[in-house]
Amino acid sequence: MLVELHSHTTYSVRSKVFIEGLNTPREMLMHAKKLGLGALAITDHDEIKGSLEARKIAKKYGVIAIPGEEITTRSGHVVALGIDKFVKPGMSVEETIDTVHDLGGITIGVHPFDIRNEGISELSRKTDAIESFNAINIERFSNKKAKNFAKIHRKPQVAGSDAHWTEMMGYGVNEIEAHSVDDILSAIKKGKARIHGSYIPSSTILRWSIMRLEFSYDEVMNYINSNYRMPKRVISRNLLGLVNRSPGKIDYLFRLFGYCGLGYAFAYSVIKNHRSSLRYRPMVF
């Protein structure tokens, strides 16, 4: 079966742009069925409610719901799968892994080398598996580094769409021979997940970003008013106001912002990974 191991629902929220996931657990399950997925893990940020909600109704849609959570450790994000209790954020990677194992779950070092620095980098060697393909890492270099790192440390590899919207699902999935959650977790630990990965279109990511701002408009405006000084405050207010004119003629400007952001991501990723390679390169005299 095809298995989606990394997705988010409306239970995933953040600080600056409040809304992160756009769909309910039910809507994610419905779309998983539409895509022909056999199993779906909902891994909301520091929250397990959406995952447990999905587990209650998954049978209706013929999809296996894998309980999970994306946990913010002191070093970055770790996905836990196969747990039925909330794991608190803010612990070390080692403490988080031990807690998840005590609950009968497994851990995945997701997007370990992403340019947002939200992964746990080299500490992913301590997790049960490494997400070597993340469909939202469209600059590609961070995925390449994760894949090479996993090979060097002989760690099982998996893929994840990191879907925050139904339109982002199905891009990073895993082919696994399984009939239950336990089968899936066992196959991951044994390195028997076959990765199928393609990158989420930049236009889809851009639309998701705009919708996040639309749905989080009041929270973002309050953040701007409370944290930004002049003239940044005025400029940010005006830019935020543009989202209310989308979709429409203003979208050409958003596309321009998106392409500029993508260019920056590529450039930053090249520089970051080049510096990292120099750090571990042996000195020759």
Q: How many domain units?
A: 2
Q: Please identify the structural class as seen in this structure.
A: alpha/beta
The biggest beta sheet is recorded as:
9 strands, mixed
The chain-level mean pLDDT equals: 91
Shape: globular
Gross CATH architecture of the largest domain: Alpha-Beta Barrel
Query: Would you count the extended β strands for me?
Result: 9
Number of helices: 9
- Which radius of gyration do the C-alpha atoms yield? 19 Å
- CATH fold category name of the largest domain: TIM Barrel
Strand order of the largest sheet: 7-6-5-4-3-2-1-8-9
Low-pLDDT runs: 280-285
Which CATH first-tier class of the largest domain would you pick?
Alpha Beta
SSE string, helices as H and strands as E = EHEHEEHEEHEEHEHHHH
Proportion of β residues? 15-25%
> What distance separates the N and C termini?
53 Å
CATH superfamily of the largest domain: Metal-dependent hydrolases
**Estimated helix fraction:** 40-55%
List the helices and strands and how they pair.
Blueprint: E1 2-7, H1 25-35, E2 39-42, H2 49-61, E3 64-72, E4 77-81, H3 93-102, E5 106-109, E6 129-134, H4 141-152, E7 157-160, E8 172-175, H5 181-189, E9 194-197, H6 202-215, H7 217-227, H8 232-241, H9 251-280
Parallel strand pairs: 1-2, 2-3, 5-6, 6-7
Antiparallel strand pairs: 1-8, 3-4, 4-5, 8-9
Helix pairs in contact: 1-2, 6-9, 7-8
